[in-house]
Target: ABC transporter ATP-binding protein
Amino acid sequence: MSRRVKGGFRLDSGGSRILPTLPRDEARRDGPSGTTVVGRVRSGETTPPTARQPVSTSAFAVPARGNNKGLRALRSVGVAWRRLSPFFRGSRRHIMLLVALAVSAGLVEASVLALVATIAVALSTGGGEVALHVGPLAADLSQSGALAVAFGLTLVRAALQLALAYLPGRMSSQVMADLRVDLFSAFTNSAWSVKAQEGGGAFQTLMTQNVTYVALAVISLANGVTATIMFTIMIAAALAQSFVAASLMAIGAFVLFFTLRPLSRLLRRFAKRLSRAAMRFTESVQDIIAVAEETEVFGATESYVAAFHDQVDAVRRPYARTRFLSAAMPALYQSVALVMLVLALTAVALAEVGNLAGLAAVILLLVRALTYAQQMQAAITSIDERLPFMHQILDALDRYRRNPQQDGTRDLDTVASLSVEDVSFGYRADTEVLQDVSFGVSRGEAIGIVGPSGAGKSSVVQLILRLREPSSGRVLVNGQDVREIKRSAWRKKVAYVPQSSQLVRGTVRDNIRFYREWLDDEQVERAARRAHIHEEIMSWPEGYDTMIGQRAISGGQRQRVCLARALADEPEVMVLDEPTSALDVRSEEAVRQSLHEVKEDTILVLIAHRLSTLSMCDRIVVMVDGRVSAVGSHADLVEKNDFFREVNEITHRQVAQ
Ligand SMILES: Nc1ncnc2c1ncn2[C@@H]1O[C@H](COP(=O)(O)OP(=O)(O)OP(=O)(O)O)[C@@H](O)[C@H]1O
Model:
């Protein structure tokens, strides 16, 4: 279902993205389930059922066995820890250190509190000596001696606190870095069919916002662990002084913790909504930039802004609720816990603790325990709030890892021939866009692929490049199934110039070298000459060091930089999808000339709509409706293929006009 907003835009299912309003019959294609098509790589791409299914959404959900809320909460912590522990692989030593430091800090603090209580009582009663008990140590000290010991312990506690303040940040930055690297490499190693569906905005949100939230959750987790250890030590120390009061306080804190679980679950639900809304919001922001030119030119800015308001609102509501609950829970906890403290002290009074110093120590220890209990609760709240963001990352990792690129085992010396044999293929299981496609090409030859829009030309190219797998039939290299060849070996032999080439942030040189560090400057320059862009690059003030991001370059220049990129590593197979569509006639002629030269020692596969681009091809494959309609030379096809003859006549008419 789509919600209409003022003007010519609507929100898609769930109010996720701003879309132009569609005619009624087209709008129906949104699908009954209201699924949003996220892919941007090719229009019309949808999510195959396997890849986009929500994966293990119950990763943190706890099986509803029995009604024991306490057990369920503990199980949920266990499940969360199992899923998260791989991300702590670089922090194990830090975790041990954190625990050791927290135990030491707890013991020191409990000792200081007991000592301060004893000194205070000694001062108020005018007693001369202070009986000191620190763990197994017992001594009678003068008041000044006792104060000096208390001061020393406080310094130790401060040093331990500093270390405890450092560790969570250290662990969190490590988890942040590991998560980003894992996400990136899992994405890179996943099959193209999965990558192609991933919206750029969604991936960006995962990498930035979600990873940051998880890093913050790690800080909360570390603080929670510290608080739990400190709480336990304070209660243990208080137990030694007054069993009744301390056990009352401990039991009360746990009961309170479990009583607040429903609120925690509510918080998690709001946070889940927030995480989804935030993801969709980022995608919309990306769209704003992508269509900024068109919305302005079409005068649609006002209604687009109105539609965007709804997007902003979609984030605002769950955000406000999440913030409220996450602030209310610690406050609620604090109020109830204070009542419990008063009850515990009443118990102390009733139990008539024998000495004043003991009473003062119990009070101090329980007040501190209360503070740590609040910190535990705050940590849990903050983790709850961030779990859905973590969840999205884990789901994405699952999705990428469950669909890895398939690899072959054979090496590849040289490419003598390439053929497509009875290949059928569909983006969805129920629709085939290619049927029984066959053609072949040998080294030193160029083959063109021509056909009406949507005929399947780019799809064939994706199979040759091994970006996708045929549903039946084979792509053969030297007569061998390309799937048996190591991906890395095939990648070294093939180069590709896509329909819309992308530049990366960096210099012209970086863009031609394109992360292939083994290419030297000479090879980069040679490729630029062959792509007929060298002279223009040299006319720019910083030549090959010109930042392309800072310098606007024309569509034709961009296309030639990307052609140079393809030529730089001297490939044996070159696949070009409309390589000259943005070139003026002189540049097109120059590029055609260099492709002619390249052809001598390579296999060229060339998709083009303009027949002029295909003039160098030895054979041309005409594709119509996903099938090969004819294969032959230009002259053959003019004679025997209706589509080709028509295109040829149109081309001639256009030239004559
Ligand atoms: N990622 C995708 N998901 C689903 N369908 C797709 C996808 N990419 C292309 N298609 C569909 O496959 C068919 C063939 O598309 P393809 O891009 O191969 O055609 P083409 O001949 O290269 O078209 P053009 O000349 O317009 O680039 C079309 O019906 C198209 O809508």
Notes: The longest helix spans residues 301-351. The first strand starts at residue 3 and ends at 4. The radius of gyration is 34 Å. The domain at 83-402 is CATH 1.20.1560.10 (ABC transporter transmembrane region fold).
